[in-house]
Every structure is written in C-alpha cells, then in structure tokens.
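Data deposition worksheet. Section B asks for the primary sequence of the deposited chain exactly as it was used as input, without tags or linkers unless they were present during the calculation. Section C holds the resulting structure in token form. Section D is free text for depositor observations; keep each observation to a single sentence. Incomplete worksheets are returned to the depositor.
Section A, Depositor: J.P.
Section B:
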Amino acid sequence: MKKFLIPLLAMSGAMVLQPAVAQDGEALFKSKPCAACHSIDSKLVGPAFKEVAAKYDGQEGAADTLAGHIKNGSQGVWGPIPMPPNPVTEEEAKILAEWVLSQK
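Section C:
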C-alpha cells in the first residue's frame, strides 16, 4: 500500500504547487495593469483585444510577437501612443498573448 500512497501524495503535492501556468488568461488580465489601457470590445488608450486578435489572425508566430510586445512594450504598432513594458514573466506574457488572440 505504501508503494502506491507515497507517489500519489508526491504527485498531489506537485499539482498544488504548479506556478501561474495553470492560471487562465482572463484572470491574469484582471490581475495585471492591462485593463488601464485595454478592454475586450472597445478601444481605450490602446486597441480592443478583438481588434488585436483580428489583426494577427492567421499570422504564424503571432502569439510570440504579441507576448514580446506585452513584456517589453512597443511603439508605433497601433499609432503614436507607446505601450510600456509590463510587469509579467515570459510565461505570463505568453498566456496573455494566447488569451488576447482568442478574443475574436
């Protein structure tokens, strides 16, 4: 019995301690300063996420490009107002980018 119980407990502990990877994009969006400039449906300071998803629709590498813009900031992509770098990890930027691109 111990043979099965110990690995089962170890796996359970590992699942509880998973990092923000399991966090969904919407929850991450709400926990970061993104909403100060963006919304899903309408332009605020920056473009609506539906506009972003439409612009990058079907482009290879779009999630990586967008994740780079989220993490490092960008300028001139959507007009003269620059997007500042955001306090996110590479992993969080990727989750956010994939979520934004799903907002069609």
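Section D:
The chain is about 50% helix and 0% strand.
Residues 65 and 92 are 14 Å apart (CA to CA).
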